[in-house]
């Protein structure tokens, strides 16, 4: 199969291109699309064969359910039931945006989408391209991150192409995504709601609307989001986390790996880290977490392209977006 990369404006998407993408989805094909978080791998959420193909194409474990992307809040009530007042206020406050709500699902949602759970995850992306696509198709579209399962999530069309070339019909390219980490997944069937996955919307902003929430640290592991149990975001190189600002710790690690003749990469953001002994790849990311998150997955992929054996990554402070970033880095480090 030839994978077509189609450039599309994120301000005013050309309707002919949207129609072309919708036709691919109507015939059961797969279209990768941009969102504000990461690129998604789209299929018609009500077409079981197409959804099956999403799992096959990504190599995704069948017990890991998918997010259904919608364009208007009304569609939440078509897919979900018993939607609580809390869920409604979160949707009103943050949609479109990097928030996924887990609600009790209706029969219309194929069980392959929910991996057999009685809940369904739903979100409205803050990006015109997928919303126009959904409106044109008139159905929700499933959208896992458009990477091979286990790899860092794609934040550019090129990342998608690198993972899925020849396996999907089309990639809609609207440039790099702005947030760079996935949506925050919140289970609103529990009281208080539970953050199942930290992401682009911070806990602090959620709590401003609904008061204190739980996180997976507060509940039994069984109820956790299935996706958080699998190894994720893996680079070919081993990832070793360094404490923030810990230059001595970093030097020590470097010496050990250099003694082992390993090729080292370093990703840091504190100015002090500027020194790097020995050959290797060094990348400085912005200190500001909003900009950092937009670049971290691309940095990990770049390190892999440089064929390093070990990537030393300086940790970031764990508040706000730092929660999501450290979650991804920890899972990447296995
Ligand atoms: O930002 C995002 O959310 C991106 C873009 C493309 O929208 N999508 C994304 O999808 O990250 P994916 O499939 O890579 O991650 C979906 C997460 C997984 O951790 C999955 O286990 C969880 O959502 N999830 C989906 N349905 C669920 C459900 N019914 N109950 C609990 N967790 C669920
Ligand atoms: Mg993913």
Short recap of the structure:
With 334 residues, this protein is of the alpha/beta class. It contains 11 helices and 16 strands.
Explain this structure:
- With 334 residues, the chain is an alpha/beta fold.
- Helices cover 33% and strands 19% of the residues.
- It has 11 helices and 16 strands.
- The strands form 2 sheets. Strands 1, 2, 3, 4, 5, 6, 7, 8, 9, 10, 11 and 12 form a 12-stranded mixed beta sheet that branches.
- α1 packs across α6.
- It is globular, with a radius of gyration of 20 Å.
- The two termini are 33 Å apart.
- 49% of the residues are buried.
- It binds threonylcarbamoyladenylate (TXA) and magnesium ion.
- Magnesium ion binds next to loops.
Give the tags.
single chain, alpha/beta, twelve-stranded mixed β-sheet, four-stranded parallel β-sheet, 11 helices, 19% strand, binds threonylcarbamoyladenylate, binds magnesium ion
- Give a short account of the largest sheet: 12 strands, mixed
Number of strands: 16
Please bin the fraction of helical residues: 25-40%
What distance lies between the first and last C-alpha atoms, to the nearest angstrom? 33 Å
Bound ions, cofactors and other small molecules, one mention each: threonylcarbamoyladenylate, magnesium ion
Question: Radius of gyration, rounded?
Answer: 20 Å
As a percent range, the share of strand residues is 15-25%
Tell me the overall shape: globular
State the secondary-structure class.
alpha/beta
Average of the residue pLDDT scores: 94
Q: Note poorly predicted spans.
A: none
Number of helices: 11
In N-to-C order, the SSE pattern is: EHEEHEHEHEHEHEHEEEHEEHEEHEH
């Amino acid at each position: 199969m030839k994978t077509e990369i189609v450039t599309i404006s994120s301000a005013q998407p050309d309707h002919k291109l949207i129609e072309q993408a919708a036709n691919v989805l109507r015939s059961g094909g797969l279209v990768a699309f941009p969102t504000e978080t990461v690129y998604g791998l789209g299929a018609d959420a009500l077409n079981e064969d197409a959804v099956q193909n999403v799992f096959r194409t990504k190599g995704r474990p069948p017990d890991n359910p998918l997010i259904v992307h919608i364009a208007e809040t009304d569609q939440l009530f078509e897919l979900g039931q018993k939607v609580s007042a809390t869920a409604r206020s979160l949707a009103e406050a943050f949609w479109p945006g990097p928030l996924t709500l887990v609600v009790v699902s209706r029969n219309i949602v194929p069980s392959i989408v929910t991996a057999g759970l009685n809940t369904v995850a739903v979100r409205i992306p803050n990006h015109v391209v997928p919303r126009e696509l959904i409106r044109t198709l008139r159905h929700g579209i499933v959208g896992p991150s458009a990477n091979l399962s286990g790899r860092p999530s794609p934040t550019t069309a090129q990342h998608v192409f690198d993972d899925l070339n020849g396996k999907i019909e089309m990639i809609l390219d609207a440039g790099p995504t702005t947030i760079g980490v996935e949506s925050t997944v919140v289970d609103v069937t529990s009281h208080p709601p539970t953050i199942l996955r930290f992401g682009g919307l911070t806990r602090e902003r959620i709590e401003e609307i609904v008061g204190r929430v739980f996180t997976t640290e507060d509940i039994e592991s069984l109820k956790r989001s299935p996706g958080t149990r699998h190894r994720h975001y893996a680079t070919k190189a081993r990832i070793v986390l360094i404490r923030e600002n810990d230059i001595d710790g970093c030097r020590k690690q470097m010496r050990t790996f250099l003694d082992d003749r390993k090729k080292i990469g370093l990703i840091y953001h504190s100015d002090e880290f500027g020194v790097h002994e020995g050959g290797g790849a060094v990348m400085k990311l912005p200190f500001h977490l909003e900009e950092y998150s937009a670049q971290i997955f691309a940095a990990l992929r770049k390190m892999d392209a440089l064929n390093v054996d070990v990537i030393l990554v300086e940790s970031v402070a764990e508040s706000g977006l730092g929660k999501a970033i450290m979650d991804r880095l920890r899972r990447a480090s296995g």
